[in-house]
Amino acid sequence: MRRRLPVLVGLMIFAAGAARAQTAPDQTEQIRILLERVQQLEKRVGELETKTVAAAVPTAEAAAPVPAAPKPEMAEAAPAPAPMHQHEQTESQATTRQLEARYPSLQIRGFGEVNFSATDQRSAISGFNLGQLDLHLASALSHKVTYFGELTFNAQSAGYTLEVERSIIRYDYNDFFKLSFGRYHTPIGYWNTAFHHGAWLQTTISRPEMIRFGGTFIPVHFLGVLAEGNIPSGGVGLSYNAGVGNGRGFPINRPGDAGDNNNNRAWVANLYSRPAKLYGLQMGVSVYRDKITLPVNPAGNEFREWISAAHIVWTKETPEFLAEFANVNHRNILTNAITNNQAYYAQIAYRLPWLERTLKPYYRFEHTHTPLSEQVFTNLNLVQSIVGMRYDITNYASFKGEYRNFKRLPTDPRVNGAFFQTDFTF
Amino acid sequence: MSPNMNATYKRVVTFLWTILWASVALHSPSLAQTSHGTDVAVVVNSDTPVADLSLSEVRKVMLGERQYWSSKLPVVLLIRAPAARERDVVLRVIYQMSEAQFKQYWVAKIFRAEAASPPRIVYSNDMQYELLTALPGAIAFVDSRNIRPGVKVLRVDGHLPGEKDYPLR
I want to staple A290 with a disulfide (CB 3.0 to 4.6 A). Which of A7, A305, B41, B96 is the partner? Predict the structure, then answer.
């Protein structure tokens, strides 16, 4: 009896599997079968219509051969398809007209978030905040000219502030040269131009400290002119951005929207590769050059700034890996004193195969270092670890929970915090 | 139990396990698609100046990284609506994404100011052919059994649909 047990169990599993296959067929498979059936019927109707038309037309036209189904390579040279019924043709033409490009074609998309945070830091306040409400506009003005805009509404203690985050008009010559003017997210590294203000797009709740909105380490915004495009490079998949603009304004986290505060243009160049054989991989390097003018400082108020950055990312979600490094070099023009500030982060996430692939745990480590002799930045030191989970409630909304542990100065205590966010696009 | 009985018992158990695993494997949708699926042809408007693309070039086009066939001819992406087999093949082989990832990809692409619009959704073969013939630069994916005249079928990695190493199936 004991030896028959595995046989019985095997039979039961097999029977259960067979029964499940019969009684609960996959809905997608059913839809696919129905669509195939619809296609077969469409084909059959087409054949019948061809025969009907052939029978109805005058003899001279009937003598013309009805095109047979061509071999694939011959399809180009074959005559036009068989005619449809008048009403079907009108309907189809109307649908085609609807899908033809019209200019301008404004599309609006919004992003929003609601946050909750609590930490064990003294004097820190826990609670909810609304985060940013972000509106993105994209409008093709012709097949070569497109406008993109991004506006944010930011909750403040005294109300809301409105900010024009991006406003770009772009002229495409071809894939190798596109020229645009306006206010951008500076193309330094990866994150700043990949996720913008859409928290829903990024895996984590917040940006890394080195490219935090309102932060100073990297100039997040850039006002000027930008050329971009692909570089003919075969499977290496090289692309570039190169721009000239106003550079940092004052305060230095602002891009000088109303004018260049020191009459000195900044420039930026970004080169990156998306190799064809490693789909999902992107590697790149960026440089940024500017002159910073601070309010009067007895030790000299003008500085040359060189930012050099590198990134490597793997954008597939099993796993997802993002890493960036940047060095910000400041040279006091009066004293020639040089400082170097470094920041980097590495983030890994993995889309779990269960629960319809809605869960994505992640971890990020980040480090920012500013030397004591630094004169442009106030202290930005940070060592932080973040571990969290993203749960995609739908295709367009997610819920994230994070634990953070961070420390700023060597003398500061470590801070622990719990952060939650629901973010969405609409 | 005699040695002969024991050997028979082992053979029966092995046989049953083989059937069990075979049934599981045959019910697997991915395997079923591979073994029973027909080739999906890459078709373009007949005026498009291209005849042969590698799979990675097709991917580049579909990802919106190549947006022009030539300086004067922009690429117009057409894709079947969800649940169509052609769309499943495109998502699985070219994008290597789930339906949710595909939607998120295009939201992000437009948000990054890298494209002005996502691929246009087509709901039937008739509509697809209408658009392919009406829109210069249009590219679409069609079941190779339903290829009609008036469009150009592209070679992918040097192969046409129906050939042994054709990648889109």
Answer: A305
Highest mean pLDDT among A25-29, A73-77, A83-87, A148-152: A148-152
* pLDDT given for residue A101 in this prediction: 73
pTM metric for this prediction: 0.78
Backbone angles phi, psi at A193, to 5 degrees: -110, 0
The 10s digit of each residue's pLDDT in A308-335 is 999 999 999 999 999 999 999 999 999 9
Residues of B in contact with A3 (CB under 8 A): 1, 9
Residue at A130: amino acid letter: L
A257 touches chain B (CB under 8 A): no
Chain B residues closer than 8 Å to A11 by CB: 16
B104 has a pLDDT exceeding 90: yes
List pLDDT tens digits, range A277-320.
Answer: 999 999 999 999 999 998 877 667 899 999 999 999 999 999 99
pLDDT at res. A62: 32
Spell B89-107 as b/e; 16+ CB within 10 A means b: bbbebbbebbebbbbbbbb
CB contact under 8 A, B67 and A175: yes
pLDDT above 60: residue A19: no
* Cβ–Cβ under 8 Å, residues A208 and A365: no
Interface contact B117-A194, CB threshold 8 A: no
Q: What's chain A's Rg over C-alpha atoms?
A: 30
Report yes or no: B69 and B137 within 8 Å, Cβ to Cβ. Answer: yes
A79 to chain B, any CB pair closer than 8 A? The answer is: yes
Long-range contacts for A76-83 (Cβ within 8 Å, ≥24 apart)?
A: A76/B46, A76/B151, A76/B152, A76/B153, A78/B149, A78/B150, A79/B149, A79/B150, A80/B133, A80/B149, A80/B150, A81/A46, A81/B129, A81/B148, A81/B149, A81/B150, A82/A46, A82/A49, A82/A50, A82/A53, A83/A49, A83/A53
Q: Map A321-390 to HEC letters.
A: EEEEEEEEEEEECCCCCEEEEEEEEEEEECCCCCHHHCEEEEEEEEEEECCCCCCCCCCCCEEEEEEEEE
